[in-house]
Amino acid sequence: MLNIEEIKEIIPHRYPFLFIDKVSIEEIGVKGIGYKNVTINEPFFQGHFPNIPVMPGVIIVESMAQVGAVILLSDEKYKGKTPYFAGINKVRFKRKVVPGDTLRMEVVLTRVRGSVGIGEGKAYVGDELACEGEFLFAIE
Questions:
Q1: Which is nearest to 64 in space by CA: 17, 105, 8, 21?
Q2: Annotated catalytic residue, options 8, 48, 95, 122
Q3: Is it true that the peptide bond before 49 is cis, omega within 30 degrees of 0?
Q4: CA 48 to CA 51: how far, in whole Å?
Q5: Per-residue DSSP letter, 57
Q6: Is residue 73 within 8 Å of residue 83, measured between CB atoms?
Q7: Centroid of chain to Cα 19
């Protein structure tokens, strides 16, 4: 299980735009599980929404993509590279994510060829699906 310091050695994201706390690489370059402990101290809760804090859906998608980046960049052939969003498809939000929740993100990189790839992610709170979707990325 990679901790936050080990994650920061792999991906370039930093506070306030680092949205994962731990990652377990299940298969290098292919799949892993990431975790985010959602707290009221997250900067986005100041405006989304005052008195009704809900984690923005786009941040959930970004969190899954960051897990995907850790999975990808754990592969020696991509070490030091940077993955960028190229698109998102079939994203669905199934439940709100609020302070106190632990987000568990299961991500599989289904296709990586050259400088492009596709990943699929599912984010859960407990056993309840919160979000799922597909993301496309470019690697530089």
A1: 105
A2: 48
A3: yes
A4: 9
A5: H
A6: yes
A7: 7
Q: Which residues lie across from 128 on neighbouring strands?
A: 125
Q: Are 64 and 103 in contact (CB under 8 A)?
A: no
Q: Is 14 exposed, middle or buried (0-12, 13-18, 19+ CB in 10 A)?
A: exposed
Q: Which of 86, 132, 133 is nearest to 112 (CA)?
A: 86
**Tokens at 7, concatenated:** 């994650």
For the whole model, what pTM was predicted? Answer: 0.97
State both tokens at 65: 């993509």
What domains appear along the chain, each with residue ranges and CATH number?
4-139 (3.10.129.10)
Whether 13 is catalytic:
no
Task: Write out pLDDT tens, residues 1-54.
Answer: 999 999 999 999 999 999 999 999 999 999 999 999 999 999 999 999 999 999
Three-state DSSP state, 64 = helix
For 91, the token pair is: 């994203």
